[in-house]
UniProtKB/TrEMBL annotation:
Molecular function per GO: 5-formyltetrahydrofolate cyclo-ligase activity; ATP binding; metal ion binding
UniProtKB keywords: ATP-binding, Ligase, Magnesium, Metal-binding, Nucleotide-binding
Record flagged with keyword Nucleotide-binding: yes
One of the protein's GO biological processes: folic acid-containing compound biosynthetic process
The EC number(s) this enzyme carries: 6.3.3.2
Organism of this sequence: Epibacterium ulvae
Name of the protein in question: 5-formyltetrahydrofolate cyclo-ligase
Domain of life: Bacteria
Reaction catalyzed: (6S)-5-formyl-5,6,7,8-tetrahydrofolate + ATP = (6R)-5,10-methenyltetrahydrofolate + ADP + phosphate
Length: 188
């Protein structure tokens, strides 16, 4: 399979996944953040990075706010195309500014390296495969962090975002866990 074919296959998979995610977002399943809070409770005080939800992404902010009472919580900051993400310390009521791609970032940068990443996604599979937006930011970031120490990647998604046969590449970093409104999946 050529690189061009894989790009087209991934684009088609993303389009279908966006439709499923929007339908799930519009349905607003109950207690979504509660599942994530339950998982994070087992890691109190461990440096965590979440994300500021955009468009139809599932909202991790309630779980992040709860975790912030016990230790550092950050959000991603894009420093440039082709670069790994940096993570700036976030507080539930902290001042924010506009960042790239419509996501808010803390007004003042206070960078740190998380040991747990709550990862947004377009689609996932039961083996820990993740289809993102296509920029490779999380793959580069997880590869860099995992080269230094164990780093837990938690995919946070609506159950409807599950897919089979995701078009994955060797550079795609796997998820260690997926949290949905229907429960927690631990890929084999």
């Amino acid at each position: 399979m050529s690189d061009t074919d894989l790009v087209e296959i991934k684009a088609k998979a993303r389009k279908a996944a966006f439709v499923r995610r929007k339908a799930a977002f519009d349905a607003r399943p109950p207690s979504v953040a509660g599942s994530l809070s339950g998982v994070l409770a087992g890691y109190r005080g461990v440096p965590i990075a979440g994300y500021m939800p955009i468009r139809t992404e599932i909202d991790p902010l309630p779980a992040m706010a709860e975790a912030a009472a016990y230790g550092p919580v950050g959000v991603p900051v894009i420093t440039g195309m082709g670069q790994p993400l940096k993570f700036s310390r976030w507080q539930p009521e902290g001042a924010l500014r506009d960042g790239p791609f419509g996501a808010k970032v803390p007004e003042q940068d206070d960078f740190f390296e998380p040991e747990i990443l709550i990862v947004p996604l377009v689609a996932f599979d039961r083996t820990g495969g993740r289809l993102g937006y296509g920029g490779g930011f999380y793959d580069r970031t997880l590869e860099r962090l995992r080269a230094k120490r164990a780093t837990l990647a938690i995919g946070f998604a609506f159950a409807a975002q599950e897919a089979e046969d995701l078009p994955l590449e060797a550079t795609d970093q796997p998820l260690d866990m997926i949290v949905t409104e229907q429960g927690v999946l631990s890929p084999a």
